[in-house]
């Protein structure tokens, strides 16, 4: 088959739909959410029932940091257990969702600002499967991951994400997975089981983030380093924050947002999540 015919087949696999898919940012928290039944995971499950079943899921996870941008392009992505110190039950989890090489190629072509590599080595890390497994437990929907070029600034990621907007019209659920407030060094393990326990600085930043999300002041969120000392505590490294920017970049001006799972964990983490559209 010629390359032209291959491209035609690729683009026809996911026809344009009348309605855009929503966009999600999920605070994914502990890997244990992949197997535990709690208020956070129940909300993930209910969100999946509320929205149209996607043709595919494209996940931007805090746990795939690369030089350059890559998208998983294998037929059968492996389940990655990228953590330690958890029960054996968690390491035994497999999420055998199919991949979609054609969609990976289309995603690569959509992004014009940089060359996007087609990756055949990564798979689905826990930032992705711990959430998607709860949403679509039958593992019958193709799942891809787009990596985060960790050598680029926040504005770069926001602009790159905007190039993915056409996928929303093709039934692709774009899902950012991280945590808005994420400081593992300051986790208060003695209060890990205390519901909605957050340090003052975590509460300050969570409220600021929500204010700017509701008011669509995305420039404030892109320039988060200018939001004061609390921001440096909330985002000591941007790996878990960047997936939020990918989600917000895909918001149309008229689209409203829903914030859910808006709770603190162990003082220095938030599960605060966003649904757009």
From TrEMBL:
Q: Which UniProt keywords apply?
A: Dioxygenase, Metal-binding, Oxidoreductase, Zinc
**Family named by the database record:** Belongs to the DODA-type extradiol aromatic ring-opening dioxygenase family.
Documented EC number(s): 1.13.11.29
Please name the GO terms that the record assigns under molecular function: stizolobate synthase activity
- What this protein is called in its record is 4,5-DOPA dioxygenase extradiol
Gene this protein is translated from: ygiD
Entries under Gene3D superfamilies matching the protein? LigB-like
Superkingdom field: Bacteria
Q: Which cofactor does it need?
A: Zn(2+)
> For the Extradiol ring-cleavage dioxygenase class III enzyme subunit B domain, which residue ranges apply?
36-262
């Amino acid at each position: 088959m010629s390359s032209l015919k291959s491209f035609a087949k690729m683009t026809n696999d996911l026809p344009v739909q009348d309605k855009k898919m929503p966009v999600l940012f999920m605070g994914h928290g502990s890997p244990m959410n992949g197997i535990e039944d709690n208020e956070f995971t129940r909300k993930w499950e209910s969100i999946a029932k509320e929205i149209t079943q996607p043709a595919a899921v494209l996940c931007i996870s805090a746990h795939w940091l690369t030089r350059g941008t890559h998208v998983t392009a294998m037929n059968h992505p492996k389940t990655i257990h990228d953590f330690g110190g958890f029960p054996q039950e968690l390491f035994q989890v497999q999420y055998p969702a199919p991949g979609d090489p054609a969609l990976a190629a289309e995603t690569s072509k959509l992004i014009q600002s940089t060359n996007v590599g087609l990756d055949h080595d990564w798979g689905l890390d826990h930032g992705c499967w711990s959430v998607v497994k709860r949403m679509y437990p039958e593992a019958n929907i193709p799942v891809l991951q787009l990596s985060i070029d960790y050598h680029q600034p926040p504005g770069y990621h926001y602009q790159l994400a905007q190039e993915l907007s056409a996928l929303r019209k093709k039934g692709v659920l774009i899902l950012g997975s991280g945590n808005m407030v994420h400081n593992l060094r300051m986790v208060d393990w003695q209060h890990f089981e205390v519901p909605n326990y957050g340090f003052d600085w975590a509460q300050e930043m969570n409220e600021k983030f929500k204010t700017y999300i509701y008011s669509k002041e995305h420039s404030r969120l892109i320039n988060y380093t200018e939001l004061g000392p609390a921001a440096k505590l909330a985002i000591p490294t941007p790996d878990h924050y960047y997936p939020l920017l990918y989600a917000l970049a895909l918001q149309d001006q008229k689209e409203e947002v829903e914030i859910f799972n808006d709770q603190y964990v162990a003082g220095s983490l938030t599960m605060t999540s966003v649904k757009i559209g």
